[in-house]
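Pilot study result, target chain (113 residues):
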Amino acid sequence: MKKVFFIHWNEEELKKKISPLQKAGYTVSCHHSQGTPANLKEDLPDVLVICLDRLPSHGRAYAAWLWEAKKRQHIPIVFCGGLPDKADATRAAFPKAIFCTNEQLLATLDKLK
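Predicted structure:
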């Protein structure tokens, strides 16, 4: 199964969002703290999932970091959720990323296998 790194800026909501992924067999690491940066450098995921429901600009910063180096550009980024205007701004900045609703996330990840 794929290793998923999931970023969402609310710990309780994050637990609820990753539970279906874990039940489906995904290995899920996550990050929710605004005070400390996520450590993606040591163990790169197979897929980066960024929830746009909260602080979408913070999530976009992680996406930008991931794809700034050629050696990481093969890793798909999936943006889920978010208000339409926030998702549109993110879509404009990351046209090669994958976008879905929170409800579509598991099916979207399954398609990437």
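One observation from the pilot: The mean pLDDT is 88. A full batch analysis is planned for the follow-on phase.
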